[in-house]
Description:
Number of domains: 1
Order of helices and strands: HEHEHEHHEHHHHHH
CATH architecture: 3-Layer(aba) Sandwich
Largest sheet: 4 strands, parallel
Radius of gyration: 19 Å
CATH class: Alpha Beta
Helix content: 40-55%
Number of helices: 11
Shape: globular
CATH superfamily: HUPs
Strand order of the largest sheet: 3-2-1-4
Amino acid sequence: MFDSKKVKNEIVQWIQNYFAENGKDSKAVIGISGGKDSSIVAALCVEALGKERVFGVLLPQGEQYDIALAYQLVEHLGIPHTTMNIHPIVESLYHGLEEADLELNHVVKTNTPARIRMAFLYAVAASVGGRVANTCNLSEKWIGWSTKFGDAVGDFSPLSDITVTEVVFIGDELGLPHSLLYKVPEDGLTGKTDEENFGFTYATLDRYLRTGVCEDPKVKARIDKMHLATSHKTETMPYYNLSGGI
Protein backbone atom coordinates (compact mmCIF):
# COMPACT_ATOMS: atom_id res chain seq x y z
CA MET A 1 0.00 0.00 0.00
CA PHE A 2 1.38 3.39 -1.03
CA ASP A 3 1.51 5.74 1.97
CA SER A 4 1.06 9.11 0.25
CA LYS A 5 1.36 11.16 3.44
CA LYS A 6 4.61 9.48 4.45
CA VAL A 7 6.13 9.81 0.98
CA LYS A 8 4.99 13.42 0.65
CA ASN A 9 6.63 14.31 3.95
CA GLU A 10 9.84 12.48 2.96
CA ILE A 11 10.03 14.34 -0.36
CA VAL A 12 9.52 17.67 1.42
CA GLN A 13 12.38 16.80 3.78
CA TRP A 14 14.51 15.69 0.82
CA ILE A 15 13.96 19.03 -0.92
CA GLN A 16 14.89 20.89 2.25
CA ASN A 17 18.07 18.84 2.55
CA TYR A 18 18.94 19.43 -1.11
CA PHE A 19 18.65 23.20 -0.78
CA ALA A 20 20.51 23.23 2.52
CA GLU A 21 23.45 21.65 0.70
CA ASN A 22 23.08 23.32 -2.71
CA GLY A 23 21.99 26.88 -2.06
CA LYS A 24 20.55 27.90 1.30
CA ASP A 25 19.12 31.14 -0.07
CA SER A 26 18.33 30.00 -3.61
CA LYS A 27 14.89 29.53 -5.15
CA ALA A 28 13.24 26.55 -6.78
CA VAL A 29 12.54 27.48 -10.41
CA ILE A 30 9.74 25.45 -11.99
CA GLY A 31 8.28 25.41 -15.49
CA ILE A 32 4.51 25.49 -14.92
CA SER A 33 2.53 23.71 -17.63
CA GLY A 34 -0.80 23.24 -15.86
CA GLY A 35 -0.26 19.49 -15.68
CA LYS A 36 -0.12 17.33 -12.57
CA ASP A 37 3.66 16.90 -12.38
CA SER A 38 4.69 20.56 -12.43
CA SER A 39 1.77 21.40 -10.13
CA ILE A 40 2.80 18.81 -7.56
CA VAL A 41 6.50 19.67 -7.72
CA ALA A 42 5.63 23.34 -7.18
CA ALA A 43 3.38 22.49 -4.22
CA LEU A 44 6.06 20.26 -2.68
CA CYS A 45 8.63 23.04 -3.02
CA VAL A 46 6.26 25.56 -1.42
CA GLU A 47 5.79 23.25 1.55
CA ALA A 48 9.53 22.66 1.79
CA LEU A 49 10.84 26.18 1.20
CA GLY A 50 7.95 28.63 1.52
CA LYS A 51 6.20 30.30 -1.39
CA GLU A 52 8.62 33.21 -1.54
CA ARG A 53 11.41 30.80 -2.56
CA VAL A 54 9.47 29.14 -5.39
CA PHE A 55 9.41 30.85 -8.79
CA GLY A 56 7.03 29.66 -11.50
CA VAL A 57 7.71 30.15 -15.20
CA LEU A 58 4.90 29.77 -17.72
CA LEU A 59 6.30 29.01 -21.16
CA PRO A 60 3.57 28.89 -23.82
CA GLN A 61 4.47 28.41 -27.46
CA GLY A 62 2.19 30.94 -29.10
CA GLU A 63 -1.38 30.31 -27.93
CA GLN A 64 -1.67 27.62 -25.23
CA TYR A 65 -5.29 26.48 -25.03
CA ASP A 66 -5.03 25.26 -21.42
CA ILE A 67 -2.79 27.98 -19.98
CA ALA A 68 -5.60 28.94 -17.60
CA LEU A 69 -4.68 25.83 -15.59
CA ALA A 70 -1.11 27.07 -15.20
CA TYR A 71 -2.40 30.41 -13.92
CA GLN A 72 -4.78 28.55 -11.60
CA LEU A 73 -1.82 26.71 -10.07
CA VAL A 74 0.37 29.77 -9.41
CA GLU A 75 -2.61 31.64 -7.97
CA HIS A 76 -3.59 28.66 -5.79
CA LEU A 77 -0.06 28.44 -4.38
CA GLY A 78 0.50 32.21 -4.29
CA ILE A 79 3.97 31.95 -5.81
CA PRO A 80 5.79 34.66 -7.79
CA HIS A 81 5.79 33.88 -11.50
CA THR A 82 6.36 35.17 -14.99
CA THR A 83 5.12 34.28 -18.47
CA MET A 84 7.61 34.03 -21.33
CA ASN A 85 6.36 33.05 -24.78
CA ILE A 86 8.87 30.81 -26.56
CA HIS A 87 7.21 31.08 -29.98
CA PRO A 88 9.58 33.70 -31.50
CA ILE A 89 12.69 31.75 -30.48
CA VAL A 90 11.35 28.44 -31.74
CA GLU A 91 10.32 29.98 -35.06
CA SER A 92 13.71 31.64 -35.42
CA LEU A 93 15.43 28.28 -34.97
CA TYR A 94 13.08 26.64 -37.49
CA HIS A 95 13.78 29.45 -39.95
CA GLY A 96 17.51 28.86 -39.56
CA LEU A 97 17.08 25.17 -40.39
CA GLU A 98 15.00 26.00 -43.43
CA GLU A 99 17.60 28.50 -44.65
CA ALA A 100 20.19 25.71 -44.32
CA ASP A 101 17.91 23.50 -46.44
CA LEU A 102 17.36 21.09 -43.54
CA GLU A 103 14.11 19.23 -42.92
CA LEU A 104 11.69 20.33 -40.19
CA ASN A 105 10.64 16.77 -39.43
CA HIS A 106 8.57 15.39 -36.56
CA VAL A 107 11.61 14.82 -34.34
CA VAL A 108 12.67 18.45 -34.68
CA LYS A 109 9.20 19.82 -33.97
CA THR A 110 8.62 17.47 -31.03
CA ASN A 111 11.88 18.09 -29.19
CA THR A 112 12.91 21.66 -30.00
CA PRO A 113 10.26 23.47 -27.91
CA ALA A 114 11.16 21.39 -24.83
CA ARG A 115 14.85 22.27 -25.21
CA ILE A 116 14.06 25.95 -25.70
CA ARG A 117 11.90 25.89 -22.56
CA MET A 118 14.78 24.43 -20.56
CA ALA A 119 17.12 27.15 -21.85
CA PHE A 120 14.58 29.73 -20.64
CA LEU A 121 14.33 28.04 -17.23
CA TYR A 122 18.09 28.09 -16.72
CA ALA A 123 18.22 31.74 -17.78
CA VAL A 124 15.55 32.55 -15.20
CA ALA A 125 17.38 30.50 -12.57
CA ALA A 126 20.57 32.42 -13.27
CA SER A 127 18.66 35.70 -12.98
CA VAL A 128 16.84 35.00 -9.70
CA GLY A 129 19.47 32.77 -8.08
CA GLY A 130 17.71 29.43 -8.37
CA ARG A 131 17.85 25.71 -9.02
CA VAL A 132 15.76 24.23 -11.83
CA ALA A 133 13.28 21.53 -10.83
CA ASN A 134 12.93 18.47 -13.01
CA THR A 135 9.26 17.47 -13.05
CA CYS A 136 9.42 14.04 -14.73
CA ASN A 137 7.91 11.04 -12.97
CA LEU A 138 9.06 7.41 -13.00
CA SER A 139 6.43 6.23 -15.49
CA GLU A 140 7.46 8.79 -18.11
CA LYS A 141 11.15 8.29 -17.42
CA TRP A 142 10.93 4.52 -17.77
CA ILE A 143 9.60 4.62 -21.34
CA GLY A 144 11.54 7.71 -22.39
CA TRP A 145 8.53 10.02 -22.58
CA SER A 146 10.70 13.12 -22.25
CA THR A 147 13.14 15.17 -24.30
CA LYS A 148 16.87 14.78 -23.79
CA PHE A 149 18.30 18.15 -22.71
CA GLY A 150 14.71 19.36 -22.44
CA ASP A 151 12.24 18.33 -19.74
CA ALA A 152 14.45 15.32 -18.94
CA VAL A 153 17.01 17.52 -17.14
CA GLY A 154 17.15 19.80 -14.12
CA ASP A 155 19.09 20.33 -10.90
CA PHE A 156 16.87 18.27 -8.59
CA SER A 157 14.07 15.80 -9.24
CA PRO A 158 11.42 15.11 -6.59
CA LEU A 159 9.25 12.69 -8.61
CA SER A 160 11.69 10.58 -10.64
CA ASP A 161 11.04 7.51 -8.50
CA ILE A 162 7.26 8.04 -8.23
CA THR A 163 4.78 6.56 -10.73
CA VAL A 164 1.94 8.58 -12.28
CA THR A 165 -0.58 6.74 -10.10
CA GLU A 166 1.39 7.60 -6.96
CA VAL A 167 1.93 11.20 -8.11
CA VAL A 168 -1.83 11.75 -8.08
CA PHE A 169 -2.07 10.37 -4.54
CA ILE A 170 0.58 12.86 -3.44
CA GLY A 171 -1.30 15.68 -5.17
CA ASP A 172 -4.44 14.76 -3.26
CA GLU A 173 -2.41 14.78 -0.05
CA LEU A 174 -1.22 18.30 -0.93
CA GLY A 175 -4.80 19.46 -1.45
CA LEU A 176 -4.35 20.53 -5.07
CA PRO A 177 -7.43 21.26 -7.20
CA HIS A 178 -9.04 18.31 -8.98
CA SER A 179 -8.72 20.08 -12.35
CA LEU A 180 -4.92 20.04 -12.06
CA LEU A 181 -4.52 16.47 -10.81
CA TYR A 182 -6.94 14.72 -13.11
CA LYS A 183 -6.29 16.51 -16.39
CA VAL A 184 -5.77 13.89 -19.12
CA PRO A 185 -2.03 13.85 -19.96
CA GLU A 186 -1.20 14.85 -23.54
CA ASP A 187 1.91 16.09 -25.31
CA GLY A 188 0.24 19.13 -26.87
CA LEU A 189 1.76 18.33 -30.27
CA THR A 190 0.14 15.25 -31.76
CA GLY A 191 -3.45 15.93 -30.78
CA LYS A 192 -3.46 12.62 -28.91
CA THR A 193 -3.34 11.75 -25.24
CA ASP A 194 -0.21 10.13 -23.83
CA GLU A 195 -2.01 6.80 -23.52
CA GLU A 196 -3.18 6.95 -27.15
CA ASN A 197 0.42 7.50 -28.20
CA PHE A 198 1.67 4.66 -25.98
CA GLY A 199 -0.89 2.04 -26.92
CA PHE A 200 -1.37 1.21 -23.24
CA THR A 201 -2.55 2.95 -20.09
CA TYR A 202 -0.52 4.51 -17.29
CA ALA A 203 -2.32 2.14 -14.90
CA THR A 204 -0.95 -0.85 -16.85
CA LEU A 205 2.54 0.66 -16.97
CA ASP A 206 2.56 1.54 -13.27
CA ARG A 207 1.40 -1.91 -12.25
CA TYR A 208 4.18 -3.44 -14.34
CA LEU A 209 6.76 -1.13 -12.78
CA ARG A 210 5.70 -1.90 -9.21
CA THR A 211 4.81 -5.59 -9.47
CA GLY A 212 6.47 -6.87 -12.65
CA VAL A 213 3.05 -8.08 -13.81
CA CYS A 214 1.67 -7.28 -17.26
CA GLU A 215 -1.09 -9.60 -18.41
CA ASP A 216 -0.83 -8.67 -22.10
CA PRO A 217 2.47 -10.01 -23.54
CA LYS A 218 2.30 -7.57 -26.47
CA VAL A 219 2.01 -4.59 -24.12
CA LYS A 220 4.82 -5.95 -21.97
CA ALA A 221 7.02 -6.29 -25.05
CA ARG A 222 6.16 -2.73 -26.12
CA ILE A 223 7.01 -1.30 -22.69
CA ASP A 224 10.30 -3.20 -22.60
CA LYS A 225 11.16 -2.07 -26.13
CA MET A 226 10.43 1.60 -25.32
CA HIS A 227 12.54 1.38 -22.17
CA LEU A 228 15.50 -0.14 -23.98
CA ALA A 229 15.28 2.19 -26.98
CA THR A 230 15.24 5.33 -24.82
CA SER A 231 17.69 4.32 -22.10
CA HIS A 232 20.22 6.79 -23.58
CA LYS A 233 18.05 9.57 -22.12
CA THR A 234 18.71 8.50 -18.53
CA GLU A 235 22.14 6.89 -18.64
CA THR A 236 25.36 8.83 -18.14
CA MET A 237 26.87 9.97 -21.43
CA PRO A 238 29.39 7.38 -22.67
CA TYR A 239 32.95 8.63 -22.84
CA TYR A 240 36.30 7.24 -23.86
CA ASN A 241 38.27 6.23 -20.79
CA LEU A 242 41.97 6.95 -21.33
CA SER A 243 43.12 4.45 -18.73
CA GLY A 244 40.69 1.78 -19.93
CA GLY A 245 41.67 1.71 -23.57
CA ILE A 246 39.27 0.58 -26.29
